[in-house]
Amino acid sequence: MSAPPSWSATPKNQTPRAQFRAIPVSLGSRNNMPLFIDDALHRSKKYFHAHLSELLLGEFAGLSLPLHPPTAAKAAADIDATREFIRQWEGRDDVEYAIRNWSPVGLGKTEVPVRLTLNTTEELVVFAQVEDEWSSLHERFSQLSGFTAEVVAKHVSLWRSLSNDDLSKAVLVVDWFLKHPNSGLLKRAVAVEGVHTKWLENHRVLIETLVADKRGEPGRADLGLGDAEARVRLRFHSVDAPAGLTDIEVPLSNLCELQEPQVILMVENLDSFLALPTWPGVTIAWGAGYRAVDIVRGPYFSNGRLLYWGDLDLDGFKILDGVRSHVPHTESVLMNSETVSRWRYLGVADREFKAESFDNLHDFESDALDLLITDGELRIEQERIRLDVAVEEIEKVIRG
């Protein structure tokens, strides 16, 4: 039965895109509110993006959305909204209709839309208005036809935003790794035109996934690349400078070529490392934050005295704890309660503070950390401490 004359129709199968509007609140609660085309479009588009893998593999089982037409009472309460709801859905082949008896409220028997059913991928794509996106996605999916379709589709999030040019590079990079397994080379040495270190870092997960697929392995493959050897920067007094060089950076494996110093002062931050004076018999090392924990593993740092000066904050004490786990006789400098009390007025709140326990701190160091916590989880960076005061304290520790 056709709708009453007051319900205006639109041409069959035409989506009135320019006439979308918000769902009238008066038609019902959020859970059973009539579904207008604009909201159905939003839901279908959301479904499209959430099920790209199935769509690419041709496994779309259809999408059915209940339209929740208003009850007779709600239709009568807002005639204009009801008319708009029926008008938007009228005349569509993908919509199921049903007769509702609204005679008790004076609206007679009315044919109303009750369900939207999209049976094919094409119908979903057209209704969701993602034709261009789907075409582009399918084209790039075809570029990866040399790989297992299920693997490519499953990991669509890794390549869906890539350009055709980047996808072509990815295929060439995969071929390179297949020909050069376990090369031990640095990322920069991957010999594919247009591919640089940052490109490989940004797309490494995709490359590892595709290489694993080609090798018949699950998950992600080991690309067999090497890492640049860790290095450490050192400063010397002129009387101790190797070959007259007072500031050098060397790979850790080369430290054995240097004369072992009597004392090493490791400093967390670069500015403090550069600003300190040098002393005969003392080598100053830049710890570079948490890198210090790995730097001190070798005998160069463990055979003599090792002093550590870090920030007065949770990270500084955590680094000290890690350094001491490798070099138990490590001595801290300016990491005590007296220093915290003297400079806490320059401290700032540590917004990333998380309580932790440490096994390698001395009691006086734990007391300093507790004071930082009770004072408001403060952090006092090295640069906050006046350099001449810091130098005086460091010299006291060096003299023993």
UniProtKB/TrEMBL annotation:
Residues 224-393 form the Wadjet protein JetD C-terminal domain. It comes from the Bacteria. Pfam families: DUF3322, JetD_C. Residues 38-211 form the DUF3322 domain. This is Wadjet protein JetD C-terminal domain-containing protein. It comes from Corynebacterium glutamicum (strain ATCC 13032 / DSM 20300 / JCM 1318 / BCRC 11384 / CCUG 27702 / LMG 3730 / NBRC 12168 / NCIMB 10025 / NRRL B-2784 / 534).
